[in-house]
Amino acid sequence: MTAGADEDRFARLHDLIVDLLKELEREYARARHEALCDPLTGLPNRRAFEPRLEQEVSRARRYGRRLTLIMFDIDHFKDYNDRHGHRSGDELLKRLGRMLTRELREPDLAFRIGGEEFVIVLPETNLDGALAVVRRLQERLRGDDRIPVTLSFGVAEFPTHALDAEPLVEAADRALYQAKAAGRDTVRLPDGSVPGAPEPGGAPAGGAGQGSSGQAANGQGGNGTHASPWAAVPPPPVRPVEVGFHVDEDLPASIWLNGRLLRVRQVVVVPAVGGPEEPERVFHVSTDDGDYRLFLRAGRWYLEGKA
User: Fold this and answer.
1) Which residues does the annotation mark as catalytic?
2) Structural domains of the chain sorted by starting position, each given as residue range(s) with its CATH number in brackets
3) Which of 84, 275, 277, 307 gets the highest tally of CB atoms within 10 A of its CB?
């Protein structure tokens, strides 16, 4: 066999391998899409939802932002299926999925996590912003005869109702249960209250009364900052501490308090307010010993807690 024939043979073998690898890549992408996407509505499914929520909560914690989770389902969907047939039920779910895709802004994420159950993740959005989304969806439903159903909504906010992804889902699920117990076609917080309704003393339930003053009407502060959920708790004496940081992240990992090591479990970054009397850096930290406010002032770290 000549050298030219060998080269020809290797060139064909190379082309065959390249084509095979490309086909494998296409098959992998197709399989991944099918694994993470609901085939009926085209929305991401529960398998896609869980890691994405973890990612968004981690980002919100790191940068001191709020994040809101809306969980909702279709009221009396089984009765609808029984009356109109499963094909009509499937068509209704498709239309609802298209409506969510149209109505949500680009950073917001909608998922179908069960038969008639959906969730929406709203990064950098407080309860007021989430309530505005709920009201908009309710208005669209009432104006669309092709989706002749109502929805019940449960809303939970990070870090007000939970400091991690799984507890946040549980809080939103409790809120959805409260909405159904209240008669459906409504929205509730985890404690059963209505977002924006006055509480005893005049503060709105979970609304502007919990956000920083001057928040924008869309539910986000003008610079994305929000007040701390622990701000109203009277702090005990402030104590100087030594702080150890993660090697790959500029976040506290451990705190030495009076010769005792506290391991930091969770961190919420609080944006600096600015001003000569204000701390340069502020964190809310959950440790083995409880929740604290950790701040840097004039080059020294101090611990204020328990929060």
Assistant:
1) 116
2) 46-210 (3.30.70.270), 238-305 (no CATH)
3) 307
